Amino acid sequence: MDSSIHKPKSLFFIFLLLISTNLLTFFFSSTSCSPSCSPLLLTTTTSTPSIDVDLPSEFLSFTSGQLLPFGHNPNFDSDTIYPPVGRACTLFPDDLRRYMSYQVNGLCPDDELLAQKLLLRGCEPLPRRRCRPAAPPHYAQPHPLPTSLWSTPSDSSVVWTAYTCKNYTCLIDRKKTQKGFDDCKDCFDLDGRERSRWTATGTTRGSLDFTIDEVLTTREPGTIRIGLDIGGGVATFAVRMMERNITIVTTSINLNGPFNNFIAARGVVPLYISISQRLPFFDNTLDIVHSMHVLSNWIPTTLMHFLVFDVYRVLRPGGLFWVDHFFCVEEQLENVYAPLIRSVGFNELKWVVGKKLDRGAELREVYLSALLEKPLNNS
User: Fold this and answer.
1) Domains recognised in the chain with CATH numbers
2) Which residue from 121, 210, 245, 336 has the fewest beta carbons nearer than 10 Å?
3) Residue 180 — very low, low, confident or very high, per pLDDT cuts 50/70/90?
4) How does the entry describe its membrane topology (predicted)?
């Protein structure tokens, strides 16, 4: 009888003891972590996958929180600073280990392809490294402005190991000599099609090919001053705008060609980011955002929706979003992309759709060129 009376109480006591022990364990594990603990190594919920703790020591050195020399800073609301790094870096530990394996204070490995692979997988921004990147052995100074705008740079301004072509002559000729696809296959030829982009006069009404001067006439003179070109190839758009005293930053990836080197050699600013990254500009600041070809149906729909809203975010009220030759299948434009773009809230200044026939009419592909305005009020 006594055992039957006391058994429930004993079980209740054991239950309380287990709860207390777990709470104490959680308390000490959460408070014993110093400010130098990396947030990447902490798991907050059971639904969040645990991060592999076997990560490169240099990666952990970079990502670990660092105490501020003067203590708590009200701007950080903390006494610790955490360097930003792409969450997806830890999803590819083998590649990350290769990228972060180097001699501190020495030369970086010649690993541009590996770095870009990580970046395109979402390891963006890439972790910083404490090494010196490879540079051309006999570097040639760039041409001075304005000559640099339409001159091919010296071959000795580039480290060529990551690319199929080993000089600019090869890149210029590959539109005629090389089979298969390469991004912007003919754009290194500054005396070819690049020479006439966005400047052709006498375009017909309803043409997909808007000219820069046509677009600028939609704003008061001098009010388009700064902007962004997303996936801008070799930055001819930025060069054309520079000739009109407008500053354009060009995003580009080095897809089998030294695009960023080439852009910088022309005297305009390259920005080495993918379309997945949040645009590194504050809200309501840019006068114009332009994008040609890189925006198309290869981008997942949800990512596209985030991207267009990010463009809307960085444009100032009254700013322009120039969608230049966006391409997809006709049904996709009607059912997916047109509703997606229109849902963001732009005013439509121009909206032109035309057939894309370079791969055959049977594919039913179309281009969209549109000039969109962020509303001045209630944006």
Assistant:
1) 39-120 (no CATH), 147-373 (3.40.50.150)
2) 245
3) confident
4) Single-pass membrane protein; Single-pass type II membrane protein
